[in-house]
Amino acid sequence: MSQPAPEVGSPEPVGEESEFGGREEIVLWEGLPLMPSVVRCWDGIQNFAARPDDILIATYPKAGTTWVVEMVDAVLAEGDMSRCLRIPTFNRAPFLELNPLPPFPSGLQLLQSMPSPRLVKTHFPVHLVPQSFWDNDCKVVYVARNGKDNMVSYFHFQRMNQKLPEPGTWDEYFTASLNGQVSWGSWFDHVTGWWKAKEKRNILYLFYEDMKEDPAREITRLAKFLGKGLDQAVIDRIVDHTSFSSMKDNPMTNYTVLPSFVFNHSVSPFMRKGEVGSWKTQFTVSQNERFDEEYRRRMTDPSLIFRTEL
Ligand code: PPS
């Protein structure tokens, strides 16, 4: 039996602004636009030794990672939220490819010192996931979000995240994103690659829109996948704990424990809107047409269906 993970990391940030460095410009690596800091620890990532009880949480950036991490953690704790309320999300589910300058800890460092069962966060497309996850048949929870809301969320995140490149104007960003020229690459490739992989791998593929529509239903599916039979009262408690308003107010999930030289919430809060369909106030009519055209061209598998409104 694996022991519950003791506390890893403190809510207090380590490191000074002068040590943090500025925004990075993306580079092309293994055919994927990535931050140079990720490329710097490439061998460490690819040789990462997954353990059989690791749970990998994979998403395209801004698809609902933090939300599903909270759900997974609360499910594993069978609704006992005490640990979730003490430790920031980024220490409960270290980000595999995060590699800031010292003394800020990398994802690999956090993971190496973490007892099992570990939650591991990644934004990699499926073909770049370290092989040891597949060799160990680790459970993977993937969340996909409709491409329009996902793009808008990523744009505002790049404005506030002081490590990612400046996004430019919304119009510039729209074109870059549609062409896959953002860190971690094309949304289209990501969601379709993982969709295909679930035929062969131990992957639960969730949709942000389904989680919004009926969180209790999706948490029940998640619990089943994770081997937990939870009664309705526990599910209801997890629904409440993982609601947008709870997570927006919770310093352990809203990233406000990070200093503003990392995430500047005055530019745009991490917990920004948490809605389905907020793209409508950002997309122009012609951008919407361009997106739909690209969507029709790229999304050829009729079994993969996204909803851009509820
Ligand atoms: S990251 O940086 O990639 O880990 O970001 P990620 O957590 O994937 O995505 C952040 C967006 O998810 C929204 N969010 C939620 N929506 C609904 N309910 C809950 N509980 C929730 N928690 C996070 C968050 O608000 C970001 O979306 P936008 O559209 O920007 O608000």
Walk me through this protein's architecture.
With 310 residues, this protein is an alpha/beta fold. It has a single domain, classed as P-loop containing nucleotide triphosphate hydrolases (Rossmann fold), CATH 3.40.50. 39% of the residues lie in helices and 8% in strands. The strands form two sheets. It has a four-stranded parallel sheet, sandwiched between helices. A two-stranded antiparallel ribbon has the order 1-2. The chain starts with 16 loop residues before the first helix and ends in a 12-residue tail after the last helix. Bound molecules: 3'-phosphate-adenosine-5'-phosphate sulfate.
Major sheet: 4 strands, parallel
Estimated share of beta-strand residues: 5-15%
Instruction: Provide the residue-averaged pLDDT.
Output: 95
CATH fold description: Rossmann fold
The backbone outline, from C-alpha atoms, is globular
Class computed from helices, strands and strand pairing: alpha/beta
* Percent range of helical residues: 25-40%
Describe the structure using short key phrases:
310 residues; alpha/beta; 4-stranded parallel β-sheet; disordered N terminus
SSE blueprint and pairings:
Blueprint: H1 17-20, E1 27-29, E2 32-34, H2 36-40, H3 42-46, E3 55-59, H4 65-76, H5 89-92, H6 107-112, E4 119-122, H7 131-135, E5 139-144, H8 147-160, H9 170-178, H10 187-197, E6 203-207, H11 208-213, H12 215-225, H13 232-241, H14 244-249, H15 285-298
Parallel strand pairs: 3-4, 3-5, 5-6
Antiparallel strand pairs: 1-2
